[in-house]
């Protein structure tokens, strides 16, 4: 056995995070040891890595859960804790993990530092510094040194001329009106004997720069740059030295002339101050700082996962366009920036502009609306390696101006920037277009998971739209290990919700038009968007099995449904949601007005459906948390809503009054109609697809559920048809046109390569990438189950289709590695490969099988040693079902259905 992937609050060795609760998790791998289940486990927590000074020793216990163990210990501030796990397996083997750690921040300690701001014009980007001395005796006794720092807008921290971290865009984007994050950095190795210096550069970011709706505006959260910091030096005898922000710090203008999330950055290297953050620099002519009124009461230790350069890519081509431009093609639409080398002469203006697409072979930016998306660097005549400091771009193409004619590819590097999340899922099939579709959805997540789940990374928007976040949440959790990322987002959402009587804004953090400045209820309360309050917490519980995270977010779920119910009660208590503004099935194709972004499905029908769905999720969460009276209350509410929806929108025989694909999809997915009417609804949906030549017309609401519903209700071939369509509208239409991310619109680019519109047209907009959830759950068959979340138990029910010869998913679940693949052989055999992780069981559904024909790992299924007691295989109609414990399995049989690879027809 092997015990690995130790995480604290779903993070690896977190430093200085908020620990309102403590959740320890790990993965046990059997490693061929013979053990398949955990018999017991022991968790040890200590102040030291040798475990001589213990904080907790659980002892050997049977109930310890590797998905979420929550020890009851009282944490101390600014303290590192070490922990390890020992697991005993059911075959008698024992394994102990490597040592993990976590370290608390200041917690309730008061700040000694003061918020300071430059004494010059508030629009000038500042450098701030402080020099200090450490004696040789101090360095000899040095045990640790930490900097606790908060800055607005963005900051970059240096100590003795070195960047202290590989994190960018700190402190990130959060609901600054209600809380401010501070970060903690270990700088022990950067301190010197004698003179030392701290330096901090500040930029606008989301806090102070141009941002928001209608092209944005400046100073939404604050009007001035500000910094708060404490360097705490701890000696081995417990003595502490603190160097904090105070009036002794000094400031000077930086070389950054302007910075903006939307517009980019202008940097004048001729104004760069050499060695400005080193001790030997003479700052006698620098200006004094002054105190400012930012409050320390809003400060909280970080929740944000660090934003880092997660990959570096070389450009694939230099394009000389018909317009005479020099353009770099990176071959991939991505988020981040370009780093480049230059030896340009002093005063040379190097201008980089970022764009997603070429038009008529030329560089193009019109779909970015008012965002300039540019980096201007004025050279100082010295060799330099250059990248921006306080901005990011969404781009594939970069137009170069001011560079020498002999531009060299090797001088440019594309830096892919996003929150530090581990990829957990992969999918590979026999169709390269489907494989590219999966990659596009993954790149969409990379590009838009930048501290908040944004809608797009390139134009003058880049906000945390709640609707996009909730429809993509399941896909996100398959693709990447996302609980900490979403936990921070849900904290922001809760802060916004608390000021809105339970409602949820369209974007989190919230943004309103300037004219709505005084109206907290503007841009708030839309169905499917606000339902992020219920959908995301339940998705996180289902995927990761952390009950305490669900408990922490339960009030958010409940308050959202209660908000809707109040609106319903104020409108007559019809148990329908028929008030307020709703986006409806945004960007669907079934509106009679082709220019309208609103779909053809009645928005109040969608609102009522989500009213029901969110109430269902609250009832489920209440049951899990053993809030049984509340669960009964919300189950009753659900039944009332369903009855009202049936009266309002369906005939007694199940015909829906709203003739759209989305109306039927939502009815089935959210279980709005009783079981006996679902066959009628799915039949009507299939007929509607045939009426539309087997093409979808759905938008942001209907699309995420469409293929899921088809596969769950016996129309799996139709789901494959929608997946594999490659003409408009379809997923593969974009792939065939060269898309490398997911588009905002089904026809963001027309068949001739021209962009379809410029007012609202992002080429990196991940919502429709939610098809990947269907690929994992139905094409490859990996289904979580609510009764044993976190993949303690799950279903493996892959659904092959002859238009693909094979498909396989790998998924590093919270319980361990899950694999599910299938192959259709030329002679009609079906073969499956499955991996079930340690401590898990999988219910396997083998399609179109006769039990007598099935072999598992070379033996007949009926004779296999695993088949005893509750693991007995059963023939269930056309399928065979069995339960597999931890291990790897090869299953094969002659299918009772004829799969002709490449020729299978819909409904075949």
UniProtKB/TrEMBL annotation:
Entry EC number(s): 3.2.1.40
Lineage: Bacteria, Bacillati, Bacillota, Bacilli, Bacillales
SUPFAM superfamilies found in the cross-reference section: Six-hairpin glycosidases
Domain (Alpha-L-rhamnosidase concanavalin-like): residue spans on this chain: 320-418
Coiled coil: none
Domain (Alpha-L-rhamnosidase six-hairpin glycosidase): residue spans on this chain: 422-779
Ranges where the Alpha-L-rhamnosidase C-terminal domain occurs: 786-854
InterPro entries linked to this entry: 6-hairpin_glycosidase_sf, 6hp_glycosidase-like_sf, Alpha_rhamnosid, Bac_rhamnosid6H, Bac_rhamnosid_C, Bac_rhamnosid_N, Ig-like_fold, Rhamnosid_concanavalin
GO molecular function per UniProt: hydrolase activity
Catalysis performed (reactions): Hydrolysis of terminal non-reducing alpha-L-rhamnose residues in alpha-L-rhamnosides
UniProt keyword terms in alphabetical order: Hydrolase
Protein name: alpha-L-rhamnosidase
Protein origin, superkingdom: Bacteria
Bacterial alpha-L-rhamnosidase N-terminal domain ranges (all copies): 141-311
